[in-house]
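Hi there,

I know you've been waiting on this one. I reran it after we fixed the sequence typo, so this is the corrected version. Both the input and the resulting structure follow.
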Amino acid sequence: MTVQSGRRERKKAATRQKIADTALRLFLERGYDAVGIRDIAAEADVAVTTLFSHFASKEALVFEQDADFEHRLAQAVTGRAPDEPLMSALRREMHAMVRHCTADGAAPVWRMIDGSASLREYEASMKLRHAESLATAIAADPGLSRTPTACRTIAGFVVDAHALAREAADPEAAVDEIFGMIEAAWESTGP
């Protein structure tokens, strides 16, 4: 039974990835607004209902790693070693996320996002959700003992660091510069 479930999950993941890859290719070839959901489904050889079972909206196709990034931020808090400072764990994760989002081939995707009001709006709502999830993880850690306001503020700074760093001439240096400020803010809220 486990083998079948594993195979089913792999097939679902492969279908999801095929849809996302097809959508991104079409968006970059034709322009985001020129491509419809039916175009993507036809090109990916799936039914529209199958597409919507994997992605809630057209915008979600562009941000297909949204849930993974949200999980990774929270996991940086909850999965860090007992003696690892919170900011070190978050800085490490942000470096990894920024490297991913500034890799070769990412620039046309970010230009597409910047050029679309609906994608910018989706990204903004996604960032709010990520910040709230991160704030919840920080607040739940009994060893951190900060107010909910401090947790939400720091989480917002961390999530904003992603966009600021990926737009910088030197994204890696930008993460370190930004985290210097975030760490100072975090320490100022301490017990």
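Quick highlight: DSSP finds ten helices and no strands in the chain.

Best,
R. S.
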